[in-house]
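Quick note —
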Amino acid sequence: MEVSGTGMTATDPDWYRNREYWSENRRFIWSDRLIGASVEAAARIVSLLALEPGASVLDLACGFGRHSLELAAKGCRVTGVDLNPDLIGEAVASASSRGLGARFVCDDMRRYVEPDAFDSVICMYNSFGYFADPADDRLVLENCLHSLVHGGSLLLAVTPREVVRRACPSGDSRYWREDPDGSILLEEATVDEAWTWRSSRWILLRGAERREYGYGMRLYGASELRDLLASVGFSNIRLLDNLAGKPYGDESHQLVIVARKPPAGG
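Predicted structure written out below.
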């Protein structure tokens, strides 16, 4: 069996920069079902955030633009930002082929700021918490606040600590998935003792080829994220179960947070 890949491990603090990880595992990261749900998700985002035609939206960690493009199709003025140049290039090509005016920028969310430029900022699909230093997460939220107009909204969708703990009390898990093309993904995940970081090891089997990757995500509790947002300067913070606006509760499987930048002078 051929063993290839970059040798990336779960302890690599820059795992998200590995372009091979995103390309080789694409169908496992973004399933056909998930991509197909993007149209409905965009409609719910528009409703939840009360976005008017022409509203300016920043999609952080936009990937290949699955939400950005659908929001643009609904009349929003969208800017998508992602660190991966391959995904940004794909998003640009898709926007062009569909005749959409979405703008895409290859940049790091820790650096990207356009002061008072957007009515809303969205960060979807567990795209928050990649960084080994929690100060970087705070910096991202500060950038979001600065990029919003006064009264603008932030939408943050994550899987919080309590949901992970309820699904896997030990913090350790193993499972496998098979793609229609015959590729098999084996995943082994562990959580640190403090339940602040989840490390995953992916082994991708495709024919006689074996590739191994690792990644990590910071785990935040719902109340912890609410307090963090408030400390950065957000207000009117709502904890929701989903994009339909159902309140977050003990049986929730995900967390959607909507927060506002205070009005000028507020």
